[in-house]
Amino acid sequence: MTIPRPSSRLRTIQWVSIVLVTLVITINYIDRSTLAVGNLLIRKAFGLNATEIGALQSAWSLSYAFVQIPVGFMLDRLGPRYLVGGALIVWSLAQGAGGLAMTYAQLLWTRIGLGIAESPAYPAGVRITSDWFHARERGSPTGLYNSAGNIGPAIAPPLLTALMLAFGWRAMFVTMGAVGIVGSLIWFLLYRNPHKTALSENDMAYLAENRLATTPVSAEQWSKLFGFRTTWALILLAFCMGYSIWMYQTWIPGYLEMAQHISIKRTGILASVPLVCGIVGCWVGGWFSDALGRWGMSLVGSRKAPCIVGMLLSGFFTAITTQAATATQAVVLISLSVFFLMVSVSGKWALTTAAAPQSYCTSLAGLMNFGGYIGGTVSPIATGFVVDTTGSFVIAFAIGAALTLVGAVILMVLLRAPITSEDLVSPELVPGTAD
């Protein structure tokens, strides 16, 4: 199938939009890192123990996870411009308020507010990609905005630590709040929803399959998504993937210090290597997904393949990591595992735009991301419990490897066909029976 060639103006709009949402997600990840960077000083200021500081992170994670359920529906109804821009303002205010909190309860509520308000950012990447790019060209932009999930954690420690050491942890929170407000102004200045943008006939032909004129999704139509194996395949896949992602993001430094006996100073440097590999993995996964489509694979198949292959290889290298004899071996194996995990992440997010009609793809992405953050909530606790119980990371990493392989099998078995518009509007749809 020949895709109409978009004009240079449309190409500019496309990539400006993707760069903007990548910037928003990067700010999102830096903001959520402030608690980790300020951990010791915050504990000292409020007289907190480790459990209480951990509860602050759990409050953010759970509020973020559960708001993922309705936020995709809201994006599909309202579009990204006002919802993302407004959310960025609200979460920046919550972030700044954290620096002004005088009691533990106030700080807890600011983290809950941060989790709720940050929830539209990642699913918005799905909506923006599906709005502005042809279905067969969404892999590369998906890889770019997904890389923000590694860019943010990679630059957050040195950036936030410098702010904290220079001005204190409270000023660090307030400064990041101000950065977010500036980011929201840039967003509102530059981003437009497609139906508010005048396009040439050729560009309209390029975007024709995106069904820009579809009516907003109703609550009844949205609820029908739960009746499809495809939906549950993505939710369960995301749970398994989220478990592995947060196992690594939470425990790489601890693993290097405890299992490989690396100093804290060296750990900070070595722990960033897998994150950099993850950034590259996102880009490669997005490019490879589009390339498979150009080479003749079906749209759903070209999105599933990188996801499945990436999960299988990530699980393989995670399993081998349990036998790493030196720090060098461990970092190389973890980097390979994270690289392939991020290849699969790009495939997963691109798959949401192929597995459901245009009007429902963000709703599906929100449900999927809910599963991911439930996995991300369970993973750090389960990993810590296993390490405390066994005194080793071997079983903990083996569980992560097993769940990664389970996720690949779930995707292969359950997701056989995309959800169609006819499926969603059919009154005969019986929950649990559709493909």
Summed up:
With 435 residues, the protein is mainly α. It folds into 2 domains: 1-216, MFS general substrate transporter like domains (Growth Hormone, Chain: A), CATH 1.20.1250; 221-417, Growth Hormone, Chain: A (Up-down Bundle), CATH 1.20.1250. It has helices spanning 8-37, 39-46, 50-78, 80-100, 104-118, 121-132, 139-167, 169-190, 201-206, 219-223, 229-258, 264-270, 272-294, 299-321, 327-352, 361-390, 394-414, 421-425.
Question: How would you characterize this protein structure?
Answer:
The chain has 435 residues and is an all-alpha fold. The protein has 2 domains: 216 residues, Up-down Bundle (Growth Hormone, Chain: A); 197 residues, Growth Hormone, Chain: A (Up-down Bundle). Helix content is 79%, strand content 0%. The protein has 18 helices and no strands.
Strand content: under 5%
Decide which structural class fits the backbone. mainly alpha
CATH architecture of the largest domain: Up-down Bundle
CATH topology of the largest domain: Growth Hormone, Chain: A
Could you state the order of secondary-structure elements as H and E?
HHHHHHHHHHHHHHHHHH
CATH class of the largest domain: Mainly Alpha
Low-confidence spans: 428-435
Major sheet summary line: none
Shape: globular
What is the average of the pLDDT values? 88
